[in-house]
Amino acid sequence: MAHRFPVRVYYEDTDMGGIVYHANFLKYIERARSAWVRDLGHDQNAMRAGGTIFVVRRVEADFLAPAHYDDVLDVVSEIISAGAAKLVMEQTVMRDETVLFRALATVVCLGPDGAPVRLPANIRQLAR
Amino acid sequence: MAHRFPVRVYYEDTDMGGIVYHANFLKYIERARSAWVRDLGHDQNAMRAGGTIFVVRRVEADFLAPAHYDDVLDVVSEIISAGAAKLVMEQTVMRDETVLFRALATVVCLGPDGAPVRLPANIRQLAR
Amino acid sequence: MAHRFPVRVYYEDTDMGGIVYHANFLKYIERARSAWVRDLGHDQNAMRAGGTIFVVRRVEADFLAPAHYDDVLDVVSEIISAGAAKLVMEQTVMRDETVLFRALATVVCLGPDGAPVRLPANIRQLAR
Amino acid sequence: MAHRFPVRVYYEDTDMGGIVYHANFLKYIERARSAWVRDLGHDQNAMRAGGTIFVVRRVEADFLAPAHYDDVLDVVSEIISAGAAKLVMEQTVMRDETVLFRALATVVCLGPDGAPVRLPANIRQLAR
């Protein structure tokens, strides 16, 4: 079950090439992950206060087509696999039917001592 | 007549102080100005293609209280004065009733040769 | 006695206008303040661990001329006035002899409880 | 023959986790690529004026250990393979002997019409 998250391209996101600076796509997909976690009822501020955080371990990213100022994009996120403490997500950034960017992102959940901790159950259960 | 624009604080906006990095407030108020111009029917991509751009000339900014991850803020913008090619705007960033940031921003409209050009009439008329 | 700090403009600093995004000048002058504090023998990581931080309270910024990709700029910083816990600095960003940006920045030193604390003596003594 | 490029971690690079925000490692490795191209005698402003640009097509990135405020890092870059218009580079970000980040970055050279163009010879010849 995919999660959709809208992103408006701001002026600050562009570079002198007249398009969105490539690294900003990683910000877009993180906003989407954060929104998803929030939609599932998890408050990352509270998690953090309790010593639990999500950390990005690996990203495989393909930059397929440029995004432009004022575009309204959609980040479509899906969990590909979920281990006890690790998620692999596929995240695509679309403008209408065009895929601009696609990434596989591996995220782990770490506890107060930096060791992996179990992911919340309602997140793991979303693995397709 | 004030314009209101919502901003969600993203993880990318924070710094190691645990709060929004100070310069990012300038991004927030620019997003609000861009949205306002769009709401008034001006497409900045089309303006730019025609050689007309808005440029920030001066900002007086007071950083009054910190913003935090996941906060939903409001940027309240009002035109203080408008000349032929120049606007002075007051922009405040609020969290509920608390003012976190306040700025006076001076923006000019420049034409293809870099010289000032008349602001669109429906923008100038908003001066209070 | 002014402090000089070199800044190379990176691709990431530019925007679709083909110039440095305006808010990034605030980053440049903060890098210069940080370098200055480091040059004076203060380790901001250690200060922070001890609960003391610098916070930007106010910036008056004039954007005078654009900076471009690959420019090598100089940030020239001078302390205008120093109180017990508060500094006012004038910071200009130059390309050769051209002033691109000028700011008055007010910075305060805060302690563990968020209340102002005395600035290190060798910083206060630099006020001109 | 590897290229080395130093990076100082600025306050602006950190996030509320107290470490460098993950996407900023992509900025660090791009600064290194730009410096390398400059060291090889290519002026990207002139290339761009002539209609030729480098574009990032793919990044495989592993985030291995955190970087912190004020760290001095080294970006070590090596060309793994070079086609007519395409480079694959391995780029690692080190703090002393510790690898914090490693990426395989695929970059292509595009001409005025957006079609691939031959890479400069002295870049292709660096492929190991």
Write the layout of secondary structure elements.
Four copies of one chain form a homotetramer.
Chain A: E1 3-8, H1 24-39, H2 44-49, E2 53-63, E3 72-82, E4 86-95, E5 98-110, H3 121-124
The CATH architecture name of chain A reads Roll
- Major sheet details of chain A: 5 strands, antiparallel
Q: What percentage of the residues of chain A does DSSP assign to strands (E)?
A: 35-45%
Strand order of the largest sheet of chain A: 1-3-4-5-2
CATH-defined topology of chain A? Thiol Ester Dehydrase, Chain A
Distance between the termini of chain A: 7 Å
Give the helix/strand class of chain A: alpha+beta
Unreliable residue runs of chain A: none
- Kindly report the name of the CATH homologous superfamily of chain A: Hotdog Thioesterase
Oligomer type: homotetramer
What are the secondary-structure elements of chain A, in order, as H or E? EHHEEEEH
Just give the CATH class of chain A.
Alpha Beta
Counted up, domains of chain A total: 1
Q: Report mean pLDDT of chain A, rounded to a whole number.
A: 94
Shape field of chain A: elongated
- Count of strand segments of chain A: 5
Largest interface: A-D, 19 and 19 residues
How much helicity do the residues of chain A have? 10-25%
What is the CA-atom radius of gyration of chain A, in angstroms?
Answer: 15 Å
Number of helices of chain A: 3
Protein described:
The structure is a homotetramer of 128-residue chains. Chain A has 3 helices and 5 strands. The first copy, chain A, has one domain: Hotdog Thioesterase (Thiol Ester Dehydrase, Chain A). Chain A has a 5-stranded antiparallel beta sheet with strand order 1-3-4-5-2. The first copy, chain A, has 128 residues and is of the alpha+beta class. Chain A binds chain D through residues 16-17, 22-24, 26-27, 30, 48, 53, 55-63, and chain D through 16-17, 22-24, 26-27, 30, 48, 53, 55-63. Strand 2 (53-63) of chain A pairs antiparallel with strand 2 (53-63) of chain D, so a sheet runs across the interface.
